[in-house]
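Incident log, entry 3
Record: LuxR family transcriptional regulator (334 residues)
Problem: checksum mismatch between cached and fresh output.
Input:
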Amino acid sequence: MQQRLDRVVLADGTVVAYASVGAGRPLVYVMGWLTHLRLGWELPAERALYEALGQGIRLVRYDRAGCGMSPAVDRPASLAFELEQLGAIAAALGEPFDLMGTSMGAPVAVAWAAAHPETVRRLVLYGGWVRGSDVSAPGVRNHVLGLVESHWGLGSDVLTDIFAPDADRSTRAELARYQRACSSAATARELLALSYDIDVSDLLAQVRAPALIVHRTGDRAAPVAQAHALAAGISGAELVLLAGRSHLPFAGDRDELVRVIRRFLGLGVTRRRPDELTPRQREVADLVSQGCTNREIAVRLGIDERSAEGHVERIRLRLGFRSRAQIAAWVSSR
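Fresh output:
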């Protein structure tokens, strides 16, 4: 699958970049704190999530102002500004859509569904909260905000450990670099402060769309109590609790999360067969089976080492394996 990039322009000139994957009825995906449409698509685990969600539908994601491919603006972050940006995406679609919010995007999605019920078919909330002030103690919030503002490198490392504790060290390092590439320290601090300030407790009862709340029980960034609060406040909401500690939706058991969401949206759970590797992936898998390192694969194929690493990771994810040894065994068995 390939993503298609476009942009919308708000009345005040704010530019918001968005990406579409797949075709069919739209699923608008309101992402969490910091994002980058291009770099996120290049992260194998994150891309695998979007490809799985986008089977048979049109998945639409966007970078909020000041993040990723959306230029910085002078306007301060606020829930009202978040809704303006989402509104521009909705206007570009011109039809009702399913709406999914993750992390900070969850309360934003709640606010939109409450204010514009005619636009939302179904609502999915993952890793979200009702009141940001309940996510962590005031002392912890102030410490994290100060760390992000004064030492963005260390702050991104700390937050990555909270967001993806089950990821290995190299993956966490890559995610920390990704966060720093998404925005400036000032923007990161401002958006994080907004996530702590958002309160949609008065809006939950106004949500009319069928709603699914999904949360991992050991989520260290958003306590599972917030999932219960969302489910209790939205009439008829379905609550599904999954095992795991990772806050990022593409970390941990991504396949089970996708299965739950697609079932709720009335979509089939699609699984790729192992023989659906691309020709390039089959080449890389063969070299892995020969014991080649990423650097050796890069030299043999005339690509850079990072591209080789990405190919290996996508093969591992597509086959559902945890190690290179399993890839090698799979090649040998065939």
